[in-house]
Amino acid sequence: MLKVTVDLDVCQDHGQCVFAAPEVFTLDEDGHLAYVESPDEALRADAEDAADVCPLQAIRVEG
Amino acid sequence: MASPGGIAVVGASLGGLRAAEQLRAAGWERAITVYGDEPHLPYNRPPLSKEVLAGEAPAATTALRHRPSIADVEWRLGTAVESADLAARTLTLADGSVHAYEGLVAATGVRPRRLPLPGGPPRHVVRTLEDAAALRAELAEGVRVLVIGSGFIGCEVAATARRAGCEVTVVAPETEPMMLAVGERLGRVLRRRHEARGVRFRMGRLVSQHAADYVALDDGSECGADVVVEAVGSLPNVEWLGASAGVDLTDGILCDAQLRIGGLAHAVAVGDVARFPNPRYGALARRVEHWSMPADCAKHAARVLVAGLSGDGAASPHDATPFAPLPSFWSDQVDVRVQSFGLPGVGDGVRLLGGDPDSEDGDVVYGYYLGERMIGVVALGGARAVGMAGRYRAELMALPEAEPSSRSGV
Ligand SMILES: Cc1cc2nc3c(=O)[nH]c(=O)nc-3n(C[C@H](O)[C@H](O)[C@H](O)COP(=O)(O)OP(=O)(O)OC[C@H]3O[C@@H](n4cnc5c(N)ncnc54)[C@H](O)[C@@H]3O)c2cc1C
């Protein structure tokens, strides 16, 4: 099963993931990152793109 | 001696790494060899003008993580590819050895442009780990640093040097910093924020002469400098392809809409060195020197290359899917962050979407338009501003109405 994890200690709020995979990652009004930990399989490619464009390499996509 | 073949990736940085990973993802199971002239495995350049230059990041933290799928890739580091023969499908290395390949990925990036002015204070550029270490050794309280160029690397270096206690002046011919990337209005906001933090700007000026401890500007004034940093753009690393007839190497490697070089099914380019059309912004082929671009390119180019090598290139579904990445970049100028999505520089109108441009801090978001169509959004500030920018994603992702002529070849 698709599993997404973000190391929030490393994350610097670049928001690149939000643009790459808006159905997996969102920034709320206060700028807090929220994400779907077990997204639908159909979102795998988007989630992998998001991991690739995270400048801090803080996103892991497994499963 | 010729090696067995497989896919040769030239350039062992972000683009080369992503290309290798995406070749595996696209189903390529045979050999991949990555050739790089630097002695290092791929590392991340953005920290070089920021944390690494500030001495805050041990160089090791710049290492880029590799997917397990490329554990068997061969890395040939510390030796430049001197030339390529696209017809014979061979590479010649600086050590004279010749290597045969089936498919080629060009990922050789760019190098800093240098000014044709001899002499003067020690002059630096920032592109490699070694460059960053050499400049960092010069930055100390009270050192006068003159930064030539106000693009994103110039502005980042200025901010980092200022925070290290240096006296920093930026000289550039444009009216405002970062103008080519984000336009004059946001450039002005940025300049004011830098000035509030003690960076000086001499905009609209060129450097005309270097002397021992100062630099002369084209209005006859002088600017004291102990260290000069040249951040005046870049030159694509294309010379190794020079003898390959038929490839347009003017400002990068000209690629078709599928990132193929010279229409060949067995050669593609990715990253800073690739010049390609993006149907989002018309037919003009452009290079895009943004960190997100190698990943976007690699994903598309790897599929096209693998399809091309398996002989069904013409039938590849990717021929029907134009490569239309959404460019994006960020720039950290100490405590000022710029986040850009789309291609604001090609716009003809700018609108403030939120925030107060006159404040010295705080979030500001601008939208960039071509006629009525939004083609870029730039957020200044933290995650809230990016969140605000994110609301325009659908608009930025929408492709313009296709013109009849651009449809015909597809
Ligand atoms: C200081 C700095 C800060 C940056 N900050 C940001 C930022 O904040 N945000 C952002 O979006 N982007 C930033 N960038 C841009 C980003 O780093 C680049 O877009 C990215 O590195 C491009 O990757 P690439 O693999 O295409 O090219 P490169 O990283 O240039 O890699 C090309 C590699 O090929 C090698 N090579 C060249 N010729 C040969 C040859 N003939 N044979 C073998 N090897 C060869 C080069 O030595 C190099 O290792 C920054 C760049 C720099 C330099």
The biggest beta sheet of chain B reads: 5 strands, parallel
Name the shape of chain A in a single word.
globular
Rg of chain A, Cα atoms, Å: 10 Å
Structural class of chain B: alpha/beta
Most extensive chain-chain interface: A-B, 20 and 24 residues
For the biggest sheet of chain A, the summary is: 2 strands, antiparallel
pLDDT < 50 runs, ≥5 residues of chain A = none
Q: Assembly state here?
A: heterodimer
Average predicted confidence as pLDDT of chain B: 92
Provide the spatial order of strands within the biggest beta sheet of chain A: 1-4
The total count of helices of chain B amounts to 9
Kindly report how far apart the N and C termini of chain A lie: 5 Å
Percent range of helical residues of chain A? 10-25%
Strands of the widest sheet of chain B, in order across it, are: 3-2-1-7-19
Rounded to the nearest angstrom, the radius of gyration of chain B is 22 Å
* Regions with little confidence, pLDDT below 50 for 5+ residues of chain B: 404-410
Order of helices and strands of chain A: EHEEHE
Strand content of chain B: 25-35%
Could you tell me the mean pLDDT of chain A? Answer: 93
Structural class of chain A: alpha+beta
3D structure, described in words:
The complex is a heterodimer of chains A (63) and B (410). Chain A is an alpha+beta fold and 63 residues long. Chain A is 24% helix and 22% strand. Chain A has helices at residues 16-20, 44-53; strands at 3-6, 25-27, 33-35, 59-62. The longest helix of chain A has 10 residues, at 44-53. With 410 residues, chain B is an alpha/beta fold. Chain B has helices at 14-25, 51-54, 129-136, 152-163, 179-196, 292-309, 383-390, 393-397, 404-408; strands at residues 7-10, 32-35, 74-76, 81-85, 90-93, 98-100, 103-106, 110-112, 123-124, 144-148, 167-172, 200-203, 207-210, 214-217, 222-224, 227-230, 234-236, 253-254, 267-269, 274-277, 285-287, 328-333, 336-342, 349-355, 364-370, 373-380. Chain B has a 5-stranded parallel sheet with strand order 3-2-1-7-19, covered by helices on one side. Chain B has a 5-stranded parallel sheet with strand order 9-16-10-11-12. Chain B has a 5-stranded antiparallel sheet with strand order 22-23-26-25-24, with helices on both faces. In chain B, β25 (364-370) and β26 form a beta hairpin. The longest helix of chain B has 18 residues, at 179-196. The radius of gyration of chain B is 22 Å and the shape is globular. Chain B starts with 6 loop residues before the first strand and ends with a helix. Flavin-adenine dinucleotide binds next to α1 and β22 of chain B.
